[in-house]
Amino acid sequence: MSALRDGGIAVVILNVLLTDGSAFAVADYASYRAPNVRILFVTAASFFSDGSIFNHVVNACAYVPVATPPEDIAAMVEHYAAPI
User: Fold this and answer.
1) With 70 as the cut, is the pLDDT of residue 14 above it?
2) How many domains does the chain have?
3) Which residue range(s) make up the domain with 31?
4) pLDDT on residue 72
5) Rounded CA separation 59/20 (Å)
């Protein structure tokens, strides 16, 4: 949250199942504090595999399995962090 307050972030990578806190609270704060920040969700859960996470999180840009190779996630971050 403090990194979002300080600015300069284009993409946040969040695990849907945070052990300490709520990924949705972080995403909601990001949409309020930094509306242009995109949220890339990673998870081992399947409960949003239908794409409904995009209905709940305005700034969600991707939803990928936690087993996604890091280089693929890095490519998505590079893509979503590019100026529009």
Assistant:
1) yes
2) 1
3) 2-81
4) 96
5) 21
Q: How far apart are CA 44 and CA 37, in angstroms?
A: 23
- Give the CA angle between residues 37, 64, 71 to the nearest 5°: 85
User: Residue 35: which CATH number?
Assistant: 3.40.50.2300
Quote the CA–CA distance of 76 and 41 in Å, as a whole number: 11
Average pLDDT over residues 25-36: 89
pLDDT tens sequence across 67-83: 999 999 999 999 999 87
Q: From the CB of residue 67, how many other CB atoms can be counted at a distance below 10 Å?
A: 7
Q: Is residue 84 helix, strand or coil?
A: coil
- Both tokens of residue 30? 């990001």
